[in-house]
Amino acid sequence: MNIETHLQACKLEVDRAMENYFSGQADWPPRLKEAIVYSLKAGGKRIRPILAIAACEACGGCRENVMPVALALEMIHTFSLIHDDLPAMDNDDLRRGLPTNHKVFGEGLAVLAGDGLLAEAFYLLSQSTSNLEVLRDIALATGSAGMVGGQVLDLEGEGATLTSIDLEKIHRYKTGRLITVSVTSGAKIAGAKPSELEALKAYGERIGLAFQIADDVLNVEGSREEMGKSIGSDQDNQKATYPSLLGLEDSKTKARELVEAAILFLKPFGAKSEALSAIASYIVLRKN
Amino acid sequence: MNIETHLQACKLEVDRAMENYFSGQADWPPRLKEAIVYSLKAGGKRIRPILAIAACEACGGCRENVMPVALALEMIHTFSLIHDDLPAMDNDDLRRGLPTNHKVFGEGLAVLAGDGLLAEAFYLLSQSTSNLEVLRDIALATGSAGMVGGQVLDLEGEGATLTSIDLEKIHRYKTGRLITVSVTSGAKIAGAKPSELEALKAYGERIGLAFQIADDVLNVEGSREEMGKSIGSDQDNQKATYPSLLGLEDSKTKARELVEAAILFLKPFGAKSEALSAIASYIVLRKN
């Protein structure tokens, strides 16, 4: 399997489904819809939807059933990007090479575009799956014990002296849990067995952390063009990162080891987990 | 039935359930939990939970079953207050006589406290009801076609010349739909018949609008002490209000007429709708 081609095809399918979904919504205030669609279209890699789809297919499920869950996960991720970029948080002017939401639409509308996306994600989930457990898992991974809580820890950590244990906790909350739930939700939609769920949870936790370490490495090494945001911005915000705590080489080694460990958990799935395996490898090889 | 006593008893029960719910959550960042609990405890009237409970009981349901839905509605309402008070929105320093969330915890944490509350509301709903329709209704009334959309319309309306039709649309989105869904959710939890749902929806739409008109009137007439926020703040923000469009007396008349119309829809419920009827009357009689 050529992973670049696979990711690209899967991403296009997610994009099409997203476009289709947002072509309705006639009763939304037009400017709000514009702000929401602006950030959704701003060139994300769609890692979370792709993971949900790959996990579902690894467990014998079909893509059509998992697509609404995949879209909801991307909406939640996009909501978090819009809010994290706000002046009161990371104060970023650029995201994926484009002006951030509040730079284009103003802070008030940016807050509301994020709020609208979060509510819409749960609307979509409640409409498209009868699996309340999936909805509950996603809400948990999103809120105060997950992504939102992680952003709080991240803000509190700015300028503080953190250990690598502190840093790992921040990332487990901030990105790890939503990435892990992307994998397990896909599996649950496919009706995965408990042993399959266990293995995929372990896989998700490891690639979630690897993803964040790779992000930190790219923030040091990447070019502005490849990353589409200001390089070295973590340093400017006095944020602890894996390279600043472990050094660049040890960070890369840790990310690679996590990916290898993640892939070991895929063994019972055989050929059906090829996509999941390739995504894991892609995480440490990607350039943006 | 003495409505003041009834509302007070019901409010206390909601407060106790809320306190109980938030006494757990050990894995939330402590400062985030503090910010969330601060705004939840800041003396709300708990109108939405009380409406959900009253509607459930009017349809023969029991209070225990509707309580989680009632709490989720209050969380969503509180999330909207925290975000609406932000400097980029209404820029309010006081709410219910206390400093607003961002004044105490800073803007970043206030945004995240709101986000955390919204996610938690859906977590609670997904955990406590198997009624996906209720969850879907609440998500719809919360998001871009509801409360969040209404706040966008409200922001866009500042300084603009609005008709009373524009104003009614803003309020239908911003407060009407969440109030209506509080009523219909309670009814659905009780397993209401279609004809009962129809009647309660009509009741909810009317009291939702009456509530907002009464709020506008109080913003002109109320004392700072009673309202717990700056009086005349709507005028400062150049917001169109019912008194500014219809005049004070006609606004009061309109609110009273809406309440009377709402109460007519309760007739088929007989004595079981006494609480709903009393809440409707309270809306135009309240002093804060």
In a few lines, what is going on in this structure?
Chain A has 288 residues and is mainly α. Helices cover 73% and strands 1% of the residues of chain A.
Write a structural description.
The structure is a homodimer of 288-residue chains. The first copy, chain A, has 288 residues and is mainly α. Chain A is built from 15 helices and 2 strands. Chain A has helices spanning 3-22, 30-40, 47-58, 63-84, 101-105, 107-128, 132-142, 147-157, 164-189, 194-221, 224-227, 233-236, 242-246, 248-264, 274-285; strands spanning 94-95, 98-99. In chain A, strands 1-2 form a two-stranded antiparallel sheet. In chain A, a hairpin with a 2-residue loop joins strand 1 and strand 2. At the A-B interface, helix 2, helix 6, helix 7 and helix 8 of A face helix 2, helix 6, helix 7 and helix 8 of B.
